[in-house]
């Protein structure tokens, strides 16, 4: 039996995750769910955003369905999400971008790069170390090649013209692609950002380092109707974590206007992860039919609330 830890987190996480969870429970009544509280709200209430016991709860789950957490710009506050990704060693951040004329998967290295956490502040400068390791690059390259193999090709997003660390990244990724028999090209990340938006049909699987992948995937949301549409998976050897790409959106939280599609699609990725591609497809198709019927949240130009949209998807899933 699959045990799913559910973390709503902060802001709209508390609105979109219940919708996704209800749909997941409807298609897989055999899944077991348990709630785990982490985030800024918990920090304000208890002084701790996530402790060792919470980490053990997360570790005990087969999969984690996560909403979003608020990270205040407070130097003493450690990002819970970075902590979880690090502690569970969720090295591959997989972000599919699918819509009319676009079917791209961005595979972002999730444990090092510029988000290595190695940084310090001096009186007149602050430094962050960008770490690209052979082991980290090999495993993300392998993961990307496994995804690309049954598809078309791989693009390595990089800035090797400026960064020594990316020379290593490119060398390792292209070697893995050759080994896997995957056609591979390299592109500088700045040009890639623009080209992906202008000619998305040229791209298939894109592998890149941590911060470049973060920025590239938010920009790519433009192709499919915004941040409310994009799901993601964070995958490690032993743990799997599914979350919408968007954050806690404090500007719209508590108003029942958030788009739950990213969270629902993240639940569909969870289903695929456990081999249930039929249920995953049923959920995706139900979302498609609801959008097709003109039921949309405000960000997509509609008037449906988060809960109303979710209820419509639930009805469609039952019908499909
Ligand atoms: P954000 O993704 O929360 O919001 C950016 C913009 O997109 C906002 O205008 C928001 O209203 C809109 N938006 C996002 N998701 C939406 C949805 N489902 N439906 C409709 N509109 C949506 O990013 P922002 O504003 O940079 O960050 C807000 C907070 O979230 C910060 O504390 C940040 O640290 C945190 N954050 C957390 C993430 C996570 O938990 N994975 C990821 C990104 C940000
Ligand atoms: Mg981001």
TrEMBL record:
Domain Isopropylmalate dehydrogenase-like: 3-313
UniProt keyword Oxidoreductase, yes or no: yes
Coiled coil regions, renumbered to chain: none
Entry superkingdom: Archaea
Pfam assignment, any one: Iso_dh
Tagged with keyword Oxidoreductase: yes
Gene3D superfamilies reported for this sequence: Isopropylmalate Dehydrogenase
Record keywords, A-Z: Oxidoreductase
InterPro entries to which the protein is assigned, alphabetical: IsoCit/isopropylmalate_DH_CS, IsoPropMal-DH-like_dom
Family, similarity comment: Belongs to the isocitrate and isopropylmalate dehydrogenases family.
Protein name: NAD-dependent isocitrate dehydrogenase
């Amino acid at each position: 039996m699959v045990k799913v830890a559910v973390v709503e987190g902060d802001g709209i996480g508390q609105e979109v995750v219940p919708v996704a969870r209800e749909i997941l429970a409807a298609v897989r009544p055999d899944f077991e769910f348990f709630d785990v509280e982490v985030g800024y709200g918990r920090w304000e209430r208890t002084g701790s955003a996530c402790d060792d016991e919470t980490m053990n709860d997360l570790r005990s789950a087969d999969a984690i369905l996560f909403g979003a957490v608020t990270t205040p710009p407070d130097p003493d506050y450690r990002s819970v999400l970075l902590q979880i990704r690090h502690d569970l060693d969720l090295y591959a951040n997989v972000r599919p971008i699918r819509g009319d004329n676009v079917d791209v998967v961005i595979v972002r290295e999730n444990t090092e790069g510029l988000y290595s956490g190695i940084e310090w502040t001096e009186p007149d400068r602050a430094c962050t170390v960008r770490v690209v390791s052979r082991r980290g690059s090999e495993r993300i390259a392998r993961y990307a090649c496994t995804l690309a193999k049954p598809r078309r090709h791989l693009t390595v997003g990089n800035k090797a013209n400026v960064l020594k660390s990316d020379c290593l990244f490119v060398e390792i990724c292209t070697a893995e692609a050759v080994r896997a028999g995957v056609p591979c090209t390299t592109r500088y990340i700045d040009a890639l950002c623009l080209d992906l938006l202008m000619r998305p049909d040229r791209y298939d699987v894109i592998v890149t380092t941590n911060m470049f992948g973060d920025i590239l995937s938010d920009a790519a949301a433009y192709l499919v109707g915004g941040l409310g549409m994009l799901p993601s998976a964070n995958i490690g050897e032993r743990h799997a974590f599914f979350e919408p790409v968007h954050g806690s959106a404090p500007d719209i939280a508590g108003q029942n206007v958030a788009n739950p599609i990213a969270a629902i699609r993240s639940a569909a990725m969870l289903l695929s992860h456990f081999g249930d591609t039929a249920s995953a497809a049923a959920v995706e198709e139900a979302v498609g039919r609801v959008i097709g019927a003109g039921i949309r949240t405000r960000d997509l130009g509609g008037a449906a609330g988060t809960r109303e949209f979710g209820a419509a998807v639930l009805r469609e899933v039952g019908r499909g």
